[in-house]
Amino acid sequence: MHILLKNVQITAPSSPFHGQKKDISIQNGVIQQIGDGLEDARATVIAGDNLHVSAGWMDIFSHFCDPGQEHKEDINSGIQAAATGGFTTVMVIPNTQPALHTKPQVEYVVSKSRHSAATLLPIGAVTKNLEGTGLAEMYEMREAGAVAFSDGIKPVQSPGLLLKALQYIKAFDGTIIQLPDDQSISAHGLMNEGIHSTRLGMPGKPALAEELIIQRDLEIARYTNSRIHFTGVSTRKSIELIAAAKAEGVKVTCSVTPYHLSLSDGALVNYDTNLKVNPPLRTEEDVKAIQAAVVSGVVDCFATHHLPQDWDAKVLEFEYAKNGMIGLESAFGVIGQYLPDLPLDRLITMLTVHPRQIFNITLPEIKEGAAANLTIFDPGATWEFTTAHIASRSKNSAYLGKQLKGKVHATVNGAVFHINK
Predict the structure, then answer these.
(1) pTM here?
(2) SS3 253
(3) Which alpha helices (DSSP H) does 260-300 contain, by range?
(4) 95 within 8 A of 120, measured Cβ to Cβ
(5) pLDDT in tens, 333-374
(6) How far apart are the first and last CA of the chain?
């Protein structure tokens, strides 16, 4: 396999080539040469007016539904969705059937993604079978390839169990991921509690359900001096709590979804079930606070929360629709469209450097002799998101028909080259 990237701007703050336009020659998955005026008659040539290249992007919270619900997504379709969206590394949540709570299940995911367009890194379950009653064998899962631990979309509710988990992972400097949601508060809430839920006549889920978990878990992380990561953070107060804890030295990091930084609960006026997510879309004030936190650096990275749902799970009354939307293919364009003031260097750092730092994953390098792990993109391209851009088995996206800014052209992950049509 020979690939030649022509006159691409290298966007990699740690690279000596950062900010420079260069040709990059890749042969059999290895960067052979970086220079000017390179030629290779055998190569597939990638060229364009505004093409940039960075280290391959990483997502930290996606659901590939395999094993158990392959009609929504399987590992192969999930990998294609990731590569289409520019992601060469994806952390997959354990909410499969059976759950990723034992060594063999973790090994299954690792083995099925070898030599593919995206490398999958399993998140092992914190509790056995995601039941929230007893700890799973986290050390064994780590030995098999789990890079973090979480109960995914069923966050740990017991403070005592979370305390034990945070103490346990200290032995290998692990990280617990929590989606902040106290499920005892407004368990039947369908959207954010506020003026719009009242107008639409739908039961609400208050911001308190998120903020209480963050307050509680920050205290436990402070007590254990262990590492916790909150994902799907969606309210202004949540951001303030995390920022204060960071300033104190608590080992906390956080991520936000593209939909929480771009859409508010006012968008639910037409009862679009694709907008039914958890944590729910919050107020316009919260959206602005999330955007400001990304720009200021309080938010460490993005998480797509790619959660495929089949047609039957979304095309029905709002009350009965399942939570979640797909996000891998649209993430970059959504961020570019709704955060135009975010410097490109910082955006790429949040997609490449920070997620790997948080979970102790080696950052791919753009240098001669290094394994090729690259994303090629045009940050200025504007385009309309359609089903033609979706590689996932499911199409549950609220951004269909929307104008986005920033388009992925191709990815290289070792010897696997993926190019978008």
Answers:
(1) 0.96
(2) strand
(3) 284-296
(4) no
(5) 999 999 999 999 999 999 999 999 999 999 999 999 999 999
(6) 19
